[in-house]
Amino acid sequence: MSTFCGLTKEYPQVALDLFSGKDVLRARTYLLSHVHTDHMVGLHSDVFARHLKKHPEYKLYCSEVTREFLLTSNKYCHLRNSLVALPIQQACDVNILNDVNSEQLQVTLLPAGHYPGSAMFLLEGHAGNVLYTGDFRLKNGAAAKIEMLHAGDVVKPIRSLYIDTTFFDPKIMYIPDRTDTERSESHGSLQVQGKVWL
Predict the structure, then answer these.
(1) Any bridge partners for residue 61, and if so which?
(2) Contact predicate 124/151, CB 8 Å
(3) For 25-53, how does the pLDDT look when each residue is reduced to its tens digit (9 = 90+)?
């Protein structure tokens, strides 16, 4: 279960993995890391649907695979006009509207290794670089190989790191390893509109 409040201190006009609550509904741009229910709270609600309908300029950004998962469900069909798929490991400019003008933010989706379509978000703008992990499952040393976290041979400075804290609960004593996870998923593949993703 995600414990993240949905907003970063640096970019409060961007909501991540939470789509309900007064503060979150003041955001102007929305990011979804993956399609697990604890990261989708409020996404299917009438309140969020009305919010997006009232503000068609507000967009919900996610990976291409996450977008496909959402669009295959009637529960999320109200998002169709607001959903924007971003490529993995490619910096994209996103305009965040505010009351006076717009602010440009560079958003890069990084592979999270957690679930098909899952992504971490690197936000780069006037308030500094922010990394939001969502749920992630990277092999030891894999983060060091993510080129978009580097500027040439130097690691980009990260002002704030927002890490998913699902497993910080002392009641959770066992985290399955990748082999256990793959074994439990081997009973079938995930298909999205005829494409096999796993």
Answers:
(1) 31, 84
(2) no
(3) 889 999 998 786 777 788 988 999 999 99
